[in-house]
Structures are given as C-alpha cells and as structure tokens.
Amino acid sequence: MAPTRPNRDAHATREALLGAAFDEMYKNGFRAASLDAILRATGVTKGALYYHFGSKQGLGYAVVEERVKPLVRERYLGPFESASDPIEGLKRMGRRMQEELEKTGVLLLGCPVNNLVTEMSGVDEGFRSRLADILDEWRDTISNGLREGIERGLVHPEVDTEAIATFYVAAYQGACGFAKNAHDIAPFVACREGLDDHLQSLTARPVASRSP
Amino acid sequence: MAPTRPNRDAHATREALLGAAFDEMYKNGFRAASLDAILRATGVTKGALYYHFGSKQGLGYAVVEERVKPLVRERYLGPFESASDPIEGLKRMGRRMQEELEKTGVLLLGCPVNNLVTEMSGVDEGFRSRLADILDEWRDTISNGLREGIERGLVHPEVDTEAIATFYVAAYQGACGFAKNAHDIAPFVACREGLDDHLQSLTARPVASRSP
DNA sequence: GACGACATACCAACCAGTATGTATGTTCTC
DNA sequence: GAGAACATACATACTGGTTGGTATGTCGTC
Questions:
Q1: Does residue B156 belong to any structural domain of this protein?
Q2: Domain at A27, CATH number
Q3: Phi and psi torsions of B8, nearest 5°
Q4: Residues A146 and A98 in one domain
C-alpha cells in the first residue's frame, strides 16, 4: 500500500508508469485500461501521472513508442537481421514468436501490436501512425533483408520483396489471433509450418521456374 | 426522438437492437460499446433491452451468434462452397473480402470477427467459444472443400487440408488488420496475391514433386 | 385479470481529468 | 554560506459525466 520506491526519482517514476501501463493495456486494451489500476499497481498518484504524460492518450502514445516499438525491434527484428541468410532469418522469427506464445499467459493475451492495431487504428490517428511506424519498420526490415539476399545470390531474383514481407508480417499477426482464440498454439504452428514451407519457393535455386 | 416503429412488435424490437448493437460493437468493440448509444439509435428503451437480452453480455453473445456468424456464412462460406473447384473457391473468397474492404468505411473498421477475437477471446470465455465456433466452421469448410478436391483429382493428394485451411483463414485475418492499420488496401492486395500464387502449389499436377 | 412487452426513474460504481497544495532540489543573490 | 526565489515532482481531494444494471409502473392483448 505504501510506496516503497523513492518518491523523488522522476525517471524511475516515469518508467514504472510506462511498465504498468503496458501491462494494463496489454491485458485490457487501451480504452478499457484504467488509470486507477495503473496507479494502484505502481503506488504512484494521479498528480504524478498527469505531470509526466498530460493525458491518458499521452500515456498510451508513450507506451507504444517506448515499450511496444523496442519490444518488436529487440525480439523480432534483431534476430532476423543477425541471421546469416534472410530465409533462415524468417524461420527464426517464426520460431521466436512461437516461443513467446508458449510462455504461460501470453497465448491468451496475443500480440500487443495486433491488439492495439485492431482496437485503436480505426479511431485514433495518433495510435494508428505510431503503430504504422512499427509495422512499416517490420516490413521494411524483412524486405531489405530479402533484397540483400537477392544480391548475395541467396534469394530468387524475381521475388517481390516488399509483397512477400507484407505477406509474412500479416500472416504471423493473423496466426497469433487464431491461436489466441483457439486457446491452443496448434493453429499458430500450422501457419508457421505453412510459411516455412512457402519459404522454399523463394530460394535462389528455383524448384520450378515460371515462364520468363 | 419519438420512436416511429410500432412499439409492440417484439421480434422487430429484438432485431432492431441486434442490428444497432452490431453496428456499435463493430465501431467501438464490445467493451466500449454503449448501451445508451444503442438505445438512442433504435429508439428502444432500456427496459426493452433488458427484457430481451438480460445483460450487455447477453446482447453481445446474441450479436455474435445471430449476426456475425451468419454474415461469415453468407459472405464467405457460401461462395466458397458454390465454386466448381476449391482452389477457385479460395481465390473467390479472397476477392470477395477485398470487395468488402473497398466499400467506404469498411477498411477503417476491419473484420468484425478479427476485431472481436482480439478484444474478447482472452477475457470472456462466452465470446471466445462463440467466436471459435465461427473460425472452426470457416476452417472446416475450407478443409472439407480441399479434401473433396483431392478426391475429385483437383488438389494434390499430399496436401494437409486442415493446416492449409488454418493458414488461409489466419493469413486473411492478418491481412485485414494490416490494411486497416495502413489505411490502405494495398497490403491486403499484396497478401491476397501472395496467397493466390501459393495456391498453384496445391494443384493436382505437381509443378515440382517432393521426394516420395 | 393475467401476462407479455415494454417505459421511466433511479442508483452506485467508475471514469478521465483538474484544481490546489506541498515537499524537495536548484539557483541566484548578497 | 545563508537565505530568498523559483521550478520540479509529486500528493490529495474533488468534479461532472457515463457506465451497466434494476426496481417499479403501465399499457395492450388474449
């Protein structure tokens, strides 16, 4: 009940609020997220919250920028980029996502990005643009990786890298949603395997060549 | 302001409430849906609403069962089943979905099923099971169509029909979400074309045969 | 006169937001 | 180096509005 944190560390207060707000928004979405719940979780008072973020919307935007975006970068874009070959990188990305979903509780909550996109991007332009940033970066990272793969002779030169990248991001988002609803990771695994299978058609050595 | 409907047609009252509730839930999600807004839209009073549905949750469940489920059946499952060949049926399903997204306003709102799945299936078992019904039926319809296609020599016999069906449903849901966020149908089209391309690998005449 | 189908009025809980107060830290002045 | 002046970082108490839900009353039909 009594706050154990030092009450005068502005940075720590801000970070604590961001953390609790992320949790609350992840569980309940933004609109159903309760500021009082966030304050209860942190032991911070309303005055401090409004001092740091100005409004609930401001807090939401900050969560997207400072928590969700780095999360995607570190968890998915990093591993993809550090792979030796983009096709291996995409497979690794899928496995990484599966690992995440296998953690207890995560399956029920789904993908934070997908959740916020679904809830907010139709009704709040600030959320939409910030989430679009994340999805665009995700897509561009894959697309650039594939283009580099073409240059290095690892990926078939006729591959439309941007279309494939869009396709992969969308498919994984959808797969998360499906698994979330099923309360079962099996649908995700089925999708991931389908995608991994599909990846073979992107390799430089064409299994079947289309007419030129 | 004054209700123009006849006030004594129970069935009509119920249907009007379901319609307005669907619209409100489609726009704002279930939790942010306001009963007062639904009442305002219909000219019905709170007493009538609670007489017919008992609770907001009851109204929500009824919307899923009596509006969302039939919508999916009529809009997507019907056309798929009436196609001469499951691969053609899947292509038609994708085009049908694209037509829908091209209607003004729909792109911003996204897919009603995906919206509710994302919002509710983690926090309300009643919603989850009802939405799972819809997604399962969707998947099974495609899976059965593919299996029949195998029997009729239209689809490659080694195709894992259920996995492919899951993959397709998930990918389309994800594509909707992506396009919704982008405020642009292009990502959906990219995904749809990727999926149509992928469909060629399911045909009975194998372009490349795997090792037996 | 009984029952189905509402209508009206009201309630407690919760919501985001704000006005105001206060303790702490820094900076400037002499 | 002491003390005033000021800004930072909160804390507390409150507000107006909205929420889902309910208790009770009433009208029309069989």
A1: yes
A2: 1.10.10.60
A3: -125, 25
A4: yes
pLDDT in tens, B24-54: 999 999 999 999 999 999 999 999 999 999 9
Task: Please give the pLDDT value at position B209.
Answer: 42
A188/A120 same-domain check? yes
CA atoms within 13 A on the CB side of A67: 22
**Which nucleotide lies at the shortest CA–C1' distance from A52?**
D9
Q: How many domains does chain B have?
A: 2
Q: Are residues B181 and B115 in the same domain?
A: yes
- Which tens digits make up the pLDDT trace of B158-205? 999 999 999 999 999 999 999 999 999 999 999 999 899 889 889 986
Nucleic strand D under 7 Å from the C-beta of A200: no
Question: How far off is chain A from B50, nearest CA to CA, in Å?
Answer: 23
For residue A211, being part of any structural domain is answered with: no
Of residues A27, A192, A179, A117, the one with CA closest to residue B135: A179
Distances (CA, A) of B22 to A24, B35, B115, B116, B179: 26, 11, 12, 11, 22
B180:A207 CB<8 A = no
Using a CB-CB cut-off of 8 Å, the residues of chain B touching A200 are none
Question: Which residues of chain A are modeled with pLDDT < 70?
Answer: 1-8, 205-212
Please, which pLDDT band fits residue B7 given cuts at 50, 70 and 90? low
Chain A hits for B169, CB-CB cut-off 8 Å, are 174, 178
